Amino acid sequence: MKTGMDYFAGIDVGSLSTEAVIIGDDDRLCGFSIVQTGANSTEAAEAALGSALSSAGIRRENLSRIIATGYGRISVPFAEKKITEISCHAAGAFHLFPDTGTVIDIGGQDSKTIRVGPGGKVLDFNMNDKCAAGTGRFLEVMAGKLEVSLEQMAELSLQSKGEVQISSVCTVFAESEVVSLVAQNHPRDQIIKGLHRAVVNRVWSMVKALGIHGGVTMSGGVAKNRGVVALFEEKLGRRIHVHEEPQIVGALGAALLARRESQITRKVVQ
After folding, report:
1. What distances in angstroms separate CA 6 from CA 1, 10, 65, 259, 270, one per listed residue?
2. How confident is the model at residue 265 (pLDDT cuts 50, 70, 90)?
3. Going by fewer Cβ within 10 Å, which terminus of the chain is more open, N or C?
């Protein structure tokens, strides 16, 4: 077991997956985990934390503070505090990439863009949580219709020399459109690239509303899809920061905020 320092945990309970991150008092990432949220957010949070603790090689009693975030944060009774995912994604992205001024977060069932200021402070944001369009769920449904994995979608999109325009970003209508395009023998890779383009265009309207400031960082599960990232980079005309595990950015931010709050509490007590 690792000893000699304080540890802090952040738990991000999303609609599809739950992430937990453990950091030390030096802000070093000590362990993390990603589990499916399933039907019980509390059980998912417990499972994610347990797995992250094992990854870090410490016990739960070694944690000084736990902060929960995400869609299901209110379902984490053992967290000392619940903080909005907007603040946590901003803090996590800024920590990983200090030039971050804009965060594009595309999760399972929502998408958001965040303007980030000095120290990872949130200056402004836009969010779409009313419709699955432009989210991971949208791509998951389309992958099922095309009988490919999400990993294959990314590969096929990058390899495609053309694309088929998808006229609707509504999941229900786009699903019917994809079925029709397949029946018309349109190449699958071109349909997929069109779907990725539809996601990018949907989120791009939120990006434009905030404006591009500083470095751009993508977080959330969709950031694992290089096909989507490449189209965003094409729009921007520059590279986008993507961490090797972009799903943990929110949980990392929660852990960082847990450490900061612990330090503030100590100073007040002293």
Report:
1. 13, 14, 9, 9, 17
2. low
3. C
Radius of gyration (C-alpha) of the chain in whole angstroms: 19
Class of the CATH domain delimited by 99-242: alpha beta
Taking only the tens place, the pLDDT of each residue in 50-82 is 999 999 999 999 999 999 999 999 999 999 999
Going by pLDDT thresholds of 50, 70 and 90, the confidence category of residue 32 is very high
Neighbours of 179 (CB within 10 A): 12
Architecture of the domain whose range is 1-97+244-270: 2-Layer Sandwich (3.30)
Q: What is the location of CATH 3.30.420.40 in the chain?
A: 1-97+244-270, 99-242
Instruction: Please identify which residue in the block is written with the tokens 């990392």.
Output: 252
| Helix (H) or strand (E) run with residue 24 in it | strand 17-24
Phi and psi at 169, nearest 5°, equal -105, 0
Q: Residue holding tokens 């053992």?
A: 78
Whole-angstrom Cα distance, residue 83 to residue 74?
Answer: 9
Render the burial of 213-250: b for 16+ CB within 10 Å, e for the rest: eebbbbbbbbbbbbbbbbbbbebeeeebbbbeebbbbb
Each residue of 92-122: pLDDT tens digit?
Answer: 999 999 999 999 999 888 899 999 999 999 9
